[in-house]
Batch of 4 targets.
Target 1
Amino acid sequence: MSAFTRRFRLPDDTPRLVQWLVGWYLVHLLCAPFIATSEGAVAFSLFFSILAIRRGHLRPSWHILYFPLGLYALASTLSAIAAPRSIHVGADMITWLKFLLFPLALMIFREIRGAKEAALGVMLFFGIGTSIWGLWQYFGLGQRDLEHRITGPAVHVMTFSGLILPVALVFAVLWLYDKRNLWLSFGLGVTSLALLLTFTRSVWIGWLAAITLLIVLRRPKLLAWLAPAFVWFLILMPMPLFTRLMSTFDTRQSSNLDRIRMAEAGVEIIRDYPLLGVGPANIKEVYPLYRRPDAPRFRIPHLHNNVIQIWAERGVVALAAYLIFLALFLRECARAWRGEQRKFAEIGVAVCTALTIAGLFEFNFGDTEVLFLMLDVFALVIAFTEKASPAVVNEPAPALVPRPATGP
C-alpha cells in the first residue's frame, strides 16, 4: 500500500496510473483559486484518464447532464464562427475543454472506490484554508472597506466569494446532519464569516436564498422564526456590513445603477442578435454602442447577469442549454431526495440555488474558477446520490474497483 492510497483511503491495488489521475484531480481542487495551476492539474488529469481508459483501468460512462453541456459548447462554437470578430482561438474550443471537467470528475467518482470521499475531504480543507486566508487579510492586514476587500488567494473578491459560497453551503448541510462534529462546526463558522466579510451582496443573497429553500423543504414551520432571527441579525450587524446591505436597495448607488444600465443594454443587444449573440468575449467591445449616457462605466468585462450575458453573448440556444443543465441537475437531486444520501441531494439543491441566484447579479458561470468548482460539486452530488436514486436502483452497480492493467 502506497502512502497516497493509505492517506486517501483508496483500494490497496489501485494502479499507479490511476493514483496519478486522482492525485492531479485533488491538486485541481486544492488549488481552485489559482487558475493556472488548477487548469494545469485538470489537463494532467485528462491526460492520465486517457491512458487509464486505454489500459482498461477505467471506463467512461454517460450521464444526461452531458447533453446540455455539449449543447452549450456547440452553441458557443457556432456563435464564435458567426461573429465578425472571434477572440477565442479555434471557434471557442476552450469551452469544450472546460466542460470536460464534469465527465472527468464523474468518471473518477464512479469508477474509483474512495475517490469521491477523498475529493469531498480536500474540498472542505480547501474551503477552510481559503477562508482563513481571507480572514487574515481582514483582521491582520486591515482590508475592511469596499476599496480594500478581501480576496483570499484569488485575484478578485468576486471570484473569492464565488468559491467560498458553495463550500460554505456544503459545510452547512453536512453540519445539519452531524452537529457534534467539531470539524464541520469550525468549517461552517470560518467559511460563513469569510463569506460575510467579502461585502459581496450577490453571494449574500444567494446564500440566504439557499438556506431559506432548505428550511422550506426540511422544516417549513421554522420559517416563522426566520424573520425574527433576520431582524436580530440586522440589529447586531456591524455598521459597515449593515450599510453595505442597505445599499442593495438604492438604485442610484453607482454599482446598482451600473447593473441596471448593463441589463438594459443587454436587452437591446439581444434584440439585435437573438439567435447567436455577438460572439464569445465580444460583449466588452459591443457594450459601448448600447450603453445609456448615464451608465457609470464606459467599458465592462461582462453584463453581470448569467441569463442576459449568455443570451447576448452566445445566443438563445446557449441560454436554453444553461437552463436545461440546471433543471436536469435539480431533477437528479429530487430523485434522490428520499434516498440514503439525501444530505447530498440537499447540498446539490442548496449550491445550485445559491449560484443561480447570485448569478442574477454576477456572471459567475463565466468565471472559470467558480465554474470549475460548480462542476466539481455537481459531479460529487451525482456520484453520492445516484446509487440511491430510483433512476438507477435497478441498474447494475457501477464498477468502483479499478480493473487490472491489460497492457504495458
Target 2
Amino acid sequence: MPGNTFGILFKITTWGESHGKGVGVVIDGCPPRIPLDEGIIQSMLNRRRPGKSSASTTRREPDQAVIMSGVFDNMTTGTPIMIMVYNKDADSKAYEPYADLFRPGHGDITYMAKYGIRDWRGGGRASARETVARVAAGAVAKALLDRENIEIFAYTIELGGVSAKKRNLDVMDKNMFYCPDMEAAKKMEERVLQIKKGGDSIGGIVEILARGVPPGLGEPVFDKLDADLAKALMSIGAVKGVEIGSGFEAAAKLGSENNDSITPQGFSTNNAGGILAGISNGDDIVIRVAVKPIPSILIEQKTIDWSGNSATISTKGRHDVSAIPRINVVCEAMVSLVLADHQSRQRAIKQQQSP
C-alpha cells in the first residue's frame, strides 16, 4: 500500500493498525549528533494520549515509545531511526457487530472499494491511532528544529461553535483544550458535555503558529512551503480544510488591504501568513485547520452492509467526542516534519552555493 512515506530529505514511513500489535515509524535523513532519547518523544506522545479531556475516548493506552535504532548515547547517529509503540488496550469486541456494515463518515466503504478487503477493527490503517507514529516522528523533527530556535505551537480557537477571542499562549497549557482563551475554554467544556450526553460529536478549528522560521524555506513550483504544509495537514484524517494567513478572508479583500507593506523594520502586517510565492519570508507562519466531527456516534444512522443492503447503525464503543484537543499535537508534528524537511533542503542548497 503506497502513500505511507512523507518528506524528501527528512523522510518518514509510518506503519501499523489501530488494533494490531503496535504502530511505529522509520525516520530517514535525520543528521547525526542531535540530542534525542525516549523521554523527548514521550513528552509529545503524552499530549496525544487519550483520557486527558472530557472529549476523549476511554481507551487507555500508555503510548510508551521504544527507540529501536538510530540513537546511541542519547544522540542520533545519522542512520535510520525506528520508533515503536505497542498497542496495550485494543479491544476489538465492540466492533464485531459492525464488521459487515459501513460506518458513515469513516473510510470503511472507500477502503473496501480500493482494496476489496478492510480491517474492521477500529478502522485499521485509517484509524486515528496511526497518528501516534506521526507524533513520534514529529518529536524528532522538533529536536532538529530546536537547533535553529524554531518554535511551533498548536492551539484550539474554536470547538463546537465556541470561539476563542484571545490569543494568550501562556494559558493554553492551563486548560484541557489547549485554548489560548480561558473563558472560551470553560464554554468549550460545557459544550462538550452537552454534546456527549446526546450521543453526538463536534468539530472545531486548530491554529498552528511557527516562530523563528528563517526566510528562504520552500521549493518552487510544486514543492511550495505552503503547498507542503497543506498536504501534511490534510493528510490527517479529521482535517477537512486548511488556510494560511488571511486564508479565505483574502477573497473578500482588496489587493491594497491584503498586501503586507514592507518597511525597513519588516512587514507591517501578516496576511501572507509568513509565506510568499511558496517561500518563507521570515515572519510568523500562521495556519488554521478545520477539524470535522468524529464520525463514530451513538445516534442511529442509515447505512448499507457489504452486499449493499440497507441497514442502520449506532456506533458503540470507546470514541472521542471531538478530535480536538488530541489532534493539536498531531498538527504540530506535521508542521514540524515539513519544516525539518525544508530546512534540510535549504541547507543542501547553501552547501552547493559555497565556493
Target 3
Amino acid sequence: MKNIERAIEKEIELMPKVELHVHLEGAITPKTFFQLANKNQVKLPCENLGDWEKYFQFKDFQHFIDVYGLAVSTIKKAEDFSTLIEQFFQYQESNNIIYSEVFLSASFIIQNFRNQEILEAIEFGIKQGESKHKNRIKLIPDISRHLPETQEQVLEFAIEGYKRGVFFGLGLGGMEVNYPPKLFRETFKEAKRNGLKVVAHAGEAAGSESIWGAIEELAVERIGHGIRSLEDDRLIKYLRESQIPIEVSPTSNYRLGIVTKDENHPIREMIESGLLCTINTDDPEMFSTNLSKEYKMLSLQGFSLEKLYQLNKNAIESSFLEVDEKMKLHQVLDKYRNNKNSIKP
C-alpha cells in the first residue's frame, strides 16, 4: 500500500498541471522579498532570512494580511516586478505547472507606479520568463474590494495592459464583507466593453449572496473560491446549469478557517452537485502549499487519480485561452498519462 501511495504522489508531482487562481505576490518566496527589502532599504520585523521565513508562514488571518502588506511594501521599483515575474515562471515550472492565469495586486501598483513603467517591466519579465522556462502565464490585474476608490485607475491600467498584450482580464479580490459586488458594477461593465475577461473572488468569507452578486451585478465568467455556494440550493442549480467555473483553493480554505481542519473539503459535494470545479493554490508560499500538495490532499480524501486528472482538465477548459491553445494543453496532459505506466484508479 505504501508503494502505491508513493507512486500516486509521484504521478501527481510529475503531472503537467494548469492553475487559474494564484496571486503573483503570494507565490513569491520569502527569500526574494527579503532580498528586495535589503535592496530597497525596507525594514522588516526580522533581522535575518531565517527569522523572516518563520514570520512569513501563515498563523491567522490578521497575520496573513500583515505579512502580505509587508511583502508588497518591499517592491519599490518597476524593475522589481520583472524579478517577481521571472521567479514566478521558475516557481510554477518547478511544480510542473505548464500554464497559469495569475492575479496581480493592481490597487497597490497604481498607487505607487506609473502605468507605462510598470507595464514595460512586466513585459520584460514575461519575455525573460518565456525564454528561460517551459511554461506560460497570463496576468489578470485585480481590484482590492476594500479600496473601491482605486477601481477606475485599475480599470484604466488593465485596459492599457490589454491593448499591449500584457493583460487579458480584470479581477476583484480582497475583503468580501462590507464591499458587495454592486460597488464595482459599472467598472466591470466597462471592462467587458473593452474586451477584458472578468472574474471575482466570491463565496469565501461571505455567503452565497456574494456569489449571486458576482453573477448578477458583474456578469463574471469565473468565480474565485465559491465554496459557500453549497448554502443555497437555488444557486447550486444555477451553477450546475450554467457551468460557470469555480476556482477552488482547498488549503487556503483550511488555513483561513473557512473549512475546519477536521472535515473533508466540501469540493467533493460541489462536484457531486454538478459544479465545474478547478484546483488552485491561491497564495502558495504564504499557506505552505503547492499545486501538487493540493492534489495529494484530495487523493488522501478519497479522490481517484481519474478524478484528479479530470479536475486538471477542468482547469484547461475553464481557462481563457482560445480553443486551439486549450487543445494543445490537453494533448500535453494526455501524452503524459498515455506514455507512462499510470496507476489505475
Target 4
Amino acid sequence: MESRPSPARTVLVTGATGYVGGRLVPRLLDAGFSVRCLARSPRKLAARPWIRDPRVEVIQGDARNHDDVARAMQGCSAAYYLVHSMLAAGRGYRSRDNALATTFAEAAASTGVGRIVYLGGLGETGDGLSEHLASRREVETGLASTGVPVTVLRAAMIIGSGSASFEILRYLVERLPVMITPRWVRVRCQPIAIRNVLHYLVACLDTPETTGRTLDIGGPDTPTYAELMQVMADARALPRRRILPVPVLTPRLSSYWIHLVTPIDHRMARPLAEGLRNEVVCRDDTARRLMPQRLLGVREAIELALENLRANRVETAWSSAGPMPGDPDWAGGSVFTDERAIDIDAPPATVFRAVCRIGGGHGWYAADWLWRLRGRLDRLVGGPGLRRGRRDTEHVAYGDALDFWRVTDVRPGERLALRAEMKLPGRALLEFTLEETTTGTRLVQAARFMPHGLLGLAYWFAVLPLHGIVFRGMLRGIRRAATQPQR
C-alpha cells in the first residue's frame, strides 16, 4: 500500500499555472517535497508532465477567497505566494495585489502554516519607487501582517525562455537595429537566470537562516539595459544595435512602443517600463552565501534560453498565465456560423496532430499573408497580434496561447476549441471536431461569431468573403499535412 506523504514535507504552490510556479513544482518534487497546487482553472495543469505524480494534489479555488486558500493550506508546512494580478492588466492591479496578499496571510495564520515564501521585485527602497516596485513592497508587508514568517526573495529581470522580460528584450533587439529609447537604458540591472531563481526558491525551505528574511538574488553581472541589449544582439549573431536615449519617452509611450514591437500587451508593459527607471542590483550576497550555487552570467543565461527556444524546450511561458475564461455563452444573442467539413484519408490521431500545429512559426496552412495582416492591424489597435506565437511547436494544452487565440478545450483525437483574443466588435470561437469514418476522418471546422452592435454586424459581413480563402485553404492544408506521412 502506497504511503501518504508526510505533512511536514507538503508545501502549497499558488501560481502553478504561471511562468515561475509551473517550473517550481517539478523542482520541489525532485527535492523530495509533496506539492499542493491552488488553481482557479485546474485544466490548465492537465498537460504538465508532473501532474500525474502521486505527490501532486490540485485544489480548485480562487486566491481571492479566504476559505479556498485556507482549505488548500491545511497540513502544509510552507506556502509559496507566486500570484500577480498585473497579468490581468489594467488599472487597479496594485490594490488587487495588496488584497490578495492580506487574504493569503490571514489564511496562513488560521491554518498554522510555518512559512510563506514570496518572489518579489529587486530594487531600491524608500521614496521614488515605480508603482510596480511599490506594489511589490506592499505585498511583502501584507504577507507579513499576521505574524507568519515570510521569506522574501527579490529578483530583477529573470532570463529564461518564455519569460515576459526576456521576450521584450529579444524582440526589441531582433526587430530594431536602431532604437530611440528612454534614458533608463543607462540604468544598471542585475538579471538572474530562471534556473538560479528556482534553486533559491527550493533551497530556502531547507535553510533555516532564510526564515523571516528578505534576500536579494541576482546573477554575477550588473550591466546597463543598453549593454544587455548588445549582449542579446551578439548572442543572436546580429550587428551591434544603435541605441539613442532621449528624455521625452514616458513610461506610457514606452509601453505602447513595447506593445507594437513585442508580444507583450501595453497594459502589462507599462508597469514593467515604469520599473526600469529604478536601479535593480543586489545590496549584499547573503542569499549566495546561505544557498550556494553556480550563478549563470548574462551571456550564458541568454544563450541557454535561446537554445531552449530553438530546441522547443519551453516548459512554461508568460502568455499561458493569467485568468482563463471558459467557452463563451452563446445564448441570448445572434450567432453567425461558418461551418465547413472535409474527409481525410488518415486516422483521427494523425489529423488531430496536424490540427494542433496551427499558429506560431508553422503558420495557418493557407493565406498566411492575411493572418499576418490581421495580426498587424490587431497590434495597432491594442490587441496581442501574432507575436505571442505558441509555447510548443507540436502540442497544445488548455490555456495555451496560439498567436491571438486561446485554447479553451482540447480533447486528443476529438476536438480543439479556440477563443479569439484579438480586438473584435464581438466574440469569436474557432473549433475543430473530428469523427472517425470508414475511410479515415471527417474534420469539421466551425467559426462562430457573436456580434456586438452594428459594428459587429458590419465586421462579420466584411470578413465573410475572406473565409473561403482562409478556412477552406486551412482545411486543405491540414489534409495535406495529415496524409503526407502515409504517401
